Amino acid sequence: MIEDRLNHLGMEYAQAARLADVSVETLAKIRRGVRARPKTYRRIERVLGWSVGACDVVIAGGTPQLQDDGQTQRRSLPIFDDPIEQAVWDIDAPEDVRLYFIGAYRLRDQLQPLVDAWRRQQNEEIA
Description:
Blueprint: H1 2-9, H2 13-20, H3 24-31, H4 38-48, H5 54-59, H6 83-89, H7 95-126
Pfam families: HTH_3
Protein name: XRE family transcriptional regulator
GO molecular function, one term: DNA binding
């Protein structure tokens, strides 16, 4: 079912995983029927344009309901829980650029101590 929907949307497997903010491995496991957290299912459903609960329907052997008339617009899907990440995603820019900035935003807390240490080192060298 997932592959059929991806083909219908003209979307690559890895792209769908990125858009859903899950790993390709997680998406592959779900495809094979391995259970995942409800939050993971909701992310995948949004990317595929399926209604909430559609992943559970598919796992049970059913056919998923579409979220809309089937003309899902990938760029307008609310695929990020963080409003800043969503705002970056909605900018009219190439996907790789948007993903780059979202990745940098996610690393900000890890990068700030490194920047602070570098600044302290620079100040010590000047003094």
